[in-house]
Every structure is written in structure tokens, then in C-alpha cells.
Amino acid sequence: MYQSKYEWKVRRRSSDMPDDLIDKFKLNPLEQTILENRGYTTESDLERIYRPKTYDPSLVYGMADAVARIETAFDADERILIYGDFDADGITSTVLLLNALRRRTENVDYFIPSRIEDGYGPNRAVFEELVVGQYDLVITVDNGVSGGKEIAFLKSEGIETIVVDHHAFGDNVPDATIIHPDHPDGTYPFRSLAGVGITYKLVQALGLEAKEDIGWVAIGTVADLVPMIDENKKLVIEGLKVLNDSPPTGVHTLLRSAGHDGQMDEETIAFTLAPRLNATGRLGEAEIAVELLLESDSGVAYEQAMVVENMNLERKQLVETIFDEAKTQVEPDRQINIVYQDGWHPGVLGIVASKIVEQYGKPAIVLTLDDGIYRGSARSIEGVDLHGVLSEHSNHHHRFGGHAQALGVEVLQADIESFTQELTGYFDQLQLDLRPVKYIDYQIKQGNMTMKAFERFDRLKPFGQSFQSPVFLISNENISTIRQVGKDKSHIKLSVAQVGMDVIGFGYGHLVNEVSQGDAISLVGTVNVNVFNQSRTLQMMLQDVSVDSVQLIDMRSRTDQRFDIISSDDIFVIAEGREKKGENYYHFGEVLPFTSKTVVLRDLPESVDNLAYSLGGIHASKIISIFNQKEELFFTGIPKTETITELHRLIESADDGSIDLAKHAPALAGRLGIKMKFLKMSIDIMTDLEIIRVEDGIIYKDQGDSAWRLEESAYYQNLRNQLEAERLLKMSSSTELKDYLRTLISN
């Protein structure tokens, strides 16, 4: 059995879509099913997906006041500072507003705080050093609503602040003009804009909008994982058009340095642009990303892009190094993983925490020591409100904040052990089988998903948070082909002929050690169109795997004996009479442990009855068949009655009634037309039947029953049993062997 990483939940529709809407939006059955399963069944729901729109920026609460104050700054030639943030949303917000304001004034600068030195949001020390006495107006973008005290300081120094943000309001709301889509006093129609989205609304209200601005909105919106519906969807659709028609020099250069040369879509942003922009902020140098996006000279942009690319590589290496070190602290039996160490880079701990959650399926907290305080990030899984748990069940944290599934945590160095014990103890006593959830939109069966139907999904794009790319299930179908791919064989490619689809699994190369051709398997993933040699086929991108029955691995071939998947702790079943090397060794015909993880059938049994007795009714996750054997009978056969009769006649006709095998065995075999091995078997059968006796290498006639029957020889029966075992277990195809073993296990 191979357990899935996620808990699978297949979406089920709670209500049907009216026929008139199906006709109005020209939905095919595949689209209809997925939309119904996600709860999009009304006209307003479908409008937000298929016909999203933008809204008047004047509807944003406080927008008129913000515009008036900025116009005053223009007229008075005041000095303006844009105070941004170090993630992709904050970087693009800064670039967007800076470009827009520079269309009216040259007295505008920007500042991006360092994640490591300054932290997130308004910082009084920065304000004291860089703002007081140098600027008249500060505009925060993608931050500010939690900076009440810091912004109050600016006000005391005669500096006004406009907060442009989209994060949740807390208790420390600034006394300033706040531009926010979800303002508690506002009624803006769409309340889930990204930071760059609400910044764009300000630019529109100022009348400073340019065509290229919408491209920055698309990048920041996708990168910030805000809901991909309604206005966000419209902004990304329009932004992608601009990015593909006339990409900014910095964006084009960054994509080329990353090896991307083609059309941009939301996945290009999410997996190529956003990680690189975020990498600069994680390493404390987000300004290089801002400068790159502002650059119009391709030569300069190339140099900057290579710096960013190298920073992204450094970020990846940091993540892998810390992740490898963190894994050594993970205790598999724990229901929450809390790991900490001095010297870990603080900028990547959130990614490491996410990787730990991804691998182990349980909440994770990753901390590093900084001046007597362990600081870091926590990530949880669906259904586990880690923020709530810390609020109610932990007395040893110094400070924390964030959301149910992603938050920052600080713990005093003196309290770290108590914090760990208290939190792990709480989770362990719940006795939960914690696993993240994977929601499935549609089960693929034979003939229910065609290329033509799938291509209609382009109308649903772009996908993103709250409206993610559909997830599909292939349930309990047989593998047609399977092989490892990639330079290091770390990926897998398999085909499922029953549904006519290939599957590619990045990082799933180990599956070849778990399943093989003909095995039943369940697969979950997204689907895309694969183009190869001008042929277009549907292909699943694997996200999770489950094998419900025992895994049967055929290692009989000497060229396919992957001993690296065998552990010394596995159950070994060896030939009757062979020496046991430990308590985990059993002979065929002995009772095996009822529940076993891996059973290795090392040798060929003397009979299939002994194999059946040992395997009957056991519960094993994996059975590996090797069936090693010193001598094979299948190609030589075993003696028949005619051979024994003729040999008996020759012995009877001997002059002195005896034959010296040392002298005459080769001639005797020649007379019979058999090989020496076959002669030896015949002599042993006759001895067993007491037709002859052998003493000191000499055959003598015996006075046994002249009416002997071959079947009465126990030795002959053993040979027959071995021959049958070879036929069933050594000479059968892989599929035939697995089918046979399954029948034994089920009995």
C-alpha cells in the first residue's frame, strides 16, 4: 500500500445550474460539472468568472481625500516618498506608483525596507533617519494599516501619510488617509484586491494611468495569491495582454535570464517571475528588483537580471540547505513539527516551513536565533487554525501574528524548550491523523474527457487563489507503462491506456520502486496539453498518488534487482532448510507476521503450497519477488516412467548386477541419451523407491517391489513441486505472477 500525501475530497455539487444559464454561457458538460462542484451556479457567479469587470476607483473609501492631498503635493512641488514592501506585490506596487507620479513630478523617491534589518511595514527608525526633514508626504503601498504608532510619529513631525494597503485591519489603525478595498467604512464592490490592485485604483483616480501600468498589476496580483475572481481576474487578463504585446524591458530580460521564451500566462508569473522578485526581498535587497523593473536600457537590465537570477539560485540553495538540516529534527510520530537552529537565514524560513508541511503533511514552525529570540515562520494545513492554537494553548511565545495557516512567531531563547513541549504535547494528545486536504474537481473515466472539451477551460483562465486550476482524479486504473525520466531519474512518466492519458510526476521517480506495469493506481493532478512532434495530447501533472492494495514488485530479472529498496529490517522468506540470519527470517511454510510493511520472497520455495501457507491472509504493504534458485528444472525437466524403466533394465542386465558410477556413469547417460544431472535425478528416484541401492558410488540391484509407481517416490514429488513452483513463480510473466500472488494473499 502506498498512502497518499493528501486527504482527497471529491467536490460534490450542492445545487444544479439552471438550463438557461448553461445555454447563455455556452457551457459544455465538463465546464458545467466543475463549476457546479465549486458552487458557481448563479448568473452573478458566472459573470464573475466569464465576464469579470473593473469598478470605478472613486468608489474606494477615502479616495477623494487621497487624490486631493497628492494634487496639493504636485502643486506645491512637495517631496514625496513611496514606502513599499519587499515582496512581489510590494515591489510592483512601488514601481507602478513611482512611474505614475513621475508623470507629474520629479520630487518623488521610493524606499523598500529590508526584511532582515527593518522588518515588515512602517519602521520608526527608518522614518527618523530617512524621512524627517527630507519629505513632506509619505505614501505606503502594500503596507501601513498596522503602523499606527509609526505613522503617528510622522504626523508629530508634520509629515502626512497616505496608506495604500489591502492587509487586514488590526487594533493599531493609523490616523491617516487610508485607501483600502476592504475599508470598514467603505462599500467598494470588490474587497479582495492585491496591494498593487488598490495602488492601481489610486493611479486611475489621479488620472495618471498609462497602458503599461496594468502589466504591473497582473504580476503583483498573481504573486500575492489573492482570489482570482471578479476584478482581480479582469485585471490579470488585461495585464497579461499588455505583458505579451509589449513587455517592459526588465520583465522581458528577467524572463530570458530564467530560460523562458514564449507567451506569458499566470503560471509564468507564479513560477518564474514571482519567485525571483521575492528572492530579492528574502535576501534583504528588494531595491535591485525595483531598479530592474524600472530599467529601459536592455544592457543594464541584463546585468541586473543576472544579479536577480543569482539571488534566486542563492535563495534556492539556502532553502535546500536549511530544509535538509531541519528534516533531521523532525519526529515522524509528532503531529506538529517544530524545528529551530542558530544561523538559519531568516528570509527563507517561511518557504522551509511550507516544504516541511508539504513533505510531512503536518503543521510546521521553523525558527532561527536572533539576539536572544527565536524568530521565524509557521505554516499549517487546512482545518488546523494554528493562529488560534497559539492564542489559546501556548503561554511561552514572545509574539506572533498572521493568519490561521501562515504566521510569524517569536519565542524567547529561554522559553524555546517549554514552547516546543507545550505545543507538541497539545497536538499529540489530540491523536489526530493530520494530513493536508486536496480537493478534486472531476474524475477522469474512459471517454469522459476529450481534447475539445478540455480546451474550453481556456475560458476559465486565469486560475489562481480561490479559483485554482481544476484538479482531476484517475481512480484505480492499471498502469500501462512506467519509467523514470530526467537526468537524475528523479521524475516519473507513466501511461494509463484505459483513460488515454500520460502522467508526468516531477519528484516522483521513486514510484518505480513501489509499482510496476499492470498495477492498479490512483492519481491526482492537474491536466494540460502536451505538444510533441506536432501531436497534441492531454497530460496529467501529478500531485499525489495512492495505491490501495498491496504493492507487488517483480525483481526476478537480474537486470532489475533494485536492492536499494530492501531494508535489513524487512521480512525475508527463504527456502526450506536454509540458514536464518535473524528473527525477521522465515522459511516457506511458516506463519509470517499478520501485518508486515515489506515482505521479500528471497528464494524459490520447494512447493507453491508452502508459499501459499506463508502468504495466506497476511496484510503487507509491499511484497518483493526475487525467487533466487541455485538449480533450475524447467529447461531440463524431470525423469519420466520410461526413463526409470530403461535405466532399471540396464542395471538388471549388468554382468555382476552392479555398476560403478565413477567408471560407467558417462557411458550409462550416453546409452540413455540423457545428461548427467538427469541421470543423478533418476538414480535418486530409484533409490527412494528401493529399486536399487547405492553404496560407495556403486549401484546394486535391490529387492524392492517390482510393481513400483513413480508417484510413490517422495523425492520425485519434491521435483514435481519444484518444477511447478518454477513454472508459476519463475517462468510466468510479471502480470501473471502478480495476479497469482494476489490470489494467495486474499485467501
UniProtKB/TrEMBL annotation:
Domain Single-stranded-DNA-specific exonuclease RecJ C-terminal: 551-741
Residue span, DHHA1 domain: 338-426
Entry keyword Nuclease: yes
GO biological process terms on file: DNA recombination; DNA repair
Entry keyword Iron: no
Pfam families: DHH, DHHA1, RecJ_OB, ssDNA-exonuc_C
Record's keyword terms, sorted: Exonuclease, Hydrolase, Nuclease
Domain of life: Bacteria
Domain named RecJ OB: residues: 440-544
Limits of the DDH domain: 79-209
Range of residues in the leader sequence: none
GO molecular function: 5'-3' exonuclease activity; nucleic acid binding
Family: Belongs to the RecJ family.
Protein name per the record: Single-stranded-DNA-specific exonuclease RecJ
